[in-house]
Amino acid sequence: MAEPAEYPPFQLGKPRFEQTSFYGRFRHFLDIVDPRTLFVTESRLKEAVQLLEDYKHGTLPPGVTNKELWGAQKIKQAIIHPDTNEKIFMPFRMSGYIPFGTPIVVGLLLPNQTLASTVFWQWLNQSHNACVNYANRNATKPSPTSKFIQGYLGAVISAVSIAVGLNVLVQSANKFTPATRLLIQRFVPFPAVASANICNVVLMRHTELKEGIDVLDSNGNIVGSSRIAAKHALIETALTRVVLPMPILVLPPMIMSIMEKTSLLRSRPRMVLPVQGLVCLAAFGLALPLAISLFPQMSEIETSRLEPEIAMATTSKTVVYNKGLSHECT
After folding, report:
1. What separation, in Å, do the N-terminal and C-terminal C-alpha atoms of the chain show?
2. For position 141, what pLDDT does the model report?
3. pLDDT tens across 38-62, in order?
4. Does 89 fall in a domain?
5. Cα 141 from chain centre
6. Where are the transmembrane segments (predicted)?
7. Residue 323 in contact with residue 297, Cβ under 8 Å?
8. Would the pTM of this model clear 0.70, i.e. be above it?
9. What are phi and psi of 17, to 5 degrees?
């Protein structure tokens, strides 16, 4: 019997979905953040790894389908780090980002935050981000731990400073009514988190602006190291990290401000927090794959827009570069 068209011929290490279209990237990242892989048993993981090894060495058992091979690769990529071959701690896997990150988002959006609670939730959020970033880092080249610490401290200081500063400004604004003040405070986490994300990108990858990043021709050959391509990569990554927290931290306050006026929640105040949790979970689940699908992992740029020495080193009209990890959350 013919296999469904959604399971193309298997390619080891390649994405199942086409990466040149937004829809293809969206489906690819839906696979990556699929929380069902968190419940894969140790025996199922071993089966998946063994199946991929059999494929690699040409010793596949008869009757193995493309669907089974794609499923095995999805399981392995969700759990095993590609460079270290070690299991990634469950809360720091990409598939664990939404379920483990949602309680933090709920905490960030709690009304009537005190100074201490604002600092705590912003710190916890950036700490979670830092752990996810480190757990999913590119480990092919040794990177000093000091760089991660620098990025983490910069993100924490930026997020806490802006969140606390904006809260103080709102509290001291006499022209706002208490209801308006509460509504505005609910939107404070977004600028704080967005600025922290940009700060993290700049601190973690500023050396790329000096040294450049590799650009490759259509055959995958390295043409040279481009600072212009590095600038484009950083801008794309920063844009992704500004867009990502927008629906997560802006939509829930808007939805909750409407829902809290309904008779259902007015008569049942204990339901406010669970409902907010569900709203945050839905916003998170939609926003994460949408935001990280904005730009392809391997971005294309015209050779004529790069440094003259790179343009002269190839006959290709366009080259590609790896924009780097951009799927950090809020």
Report:
1. 45
2. 60
3. 999 999 999 999 999 999 999 998 9
4. no
5. 21
6. 151-170, 238-259, 271-295
7. yes
8. yes
9. -105, 150
Report if residue 329 sits inside a domain: no
- Taking residues 131-149, report their average pLDDT: 76
Q: What is the domain count for the chain?
A: 2
Bin 112: left if φ > 0, else alpha if -120 < ψ < 50, else beta.
left
- Which residue do the tokens 């829902």 mark? 259
List the Cα angle 219/237/313 in 5-degree steps.
Answer: 30
> Hey, what amino acid is at 293?
S
- Gyration radius of the chain's alpha carbons: 22
Two tokens at 105? Answer: 């988002």
∠266-272-274 over CA atoms, to 5°?
145
Apex 111 CA angle, 106 and 116, nearest 5: 85
In sequence order, what are the residues at sequence separation of 6 or more whose Cβ sits closer than 8 angstroms to the Cβ of residue 321?
Answer: 213, 214, 215, 216, 226, 229, 230, 232, 233, 298, 299, 301
Neighbours of 290 (CB within 10 A): 17
To 10 degrees, the CA torsion angle through 219, 223, 225, 231? -60
Distance CA 39, CA 222 (A): 40
Cβ–Cβ < 8 Å for 131, 92 = yes
| Domain co-membership, 131 together with 104 | yes
Last residue of a domain, one of 80, 112, 128: 80
Residues 245 and 167 in one domain: yes
pLDDT at 78: 93
The Cα 8–Cα 27 span in angstroms is 14
Orientation of helix 227-243 relative to helix 189-211, angle to 10°: 170
Question: What's the pLDDT score for residue 105?
Answer: 93
213-216 and 222-226: which strand pairing?
A: antiparallel
**H/E element, 216:** strand 213-216
Report how far residue 151's alpha carbon sits from residue 200's, in angstroms, rounded to the nearest whole number.
5
- Residue 175 has phi, psi (to 5 degrees) of -75, -10
Same domain, 27 and 126: no
Q: Which domain holds residue 32?
A: 22-80
Q: Does 6 fall in a domain?
A: no
Which residues, listed in sequence order, are joined to residue 318 by a DSSP beta bridge? 302
Which of 245, 255, 293 lies closest to 277 in space, CA to CA?
A: 255
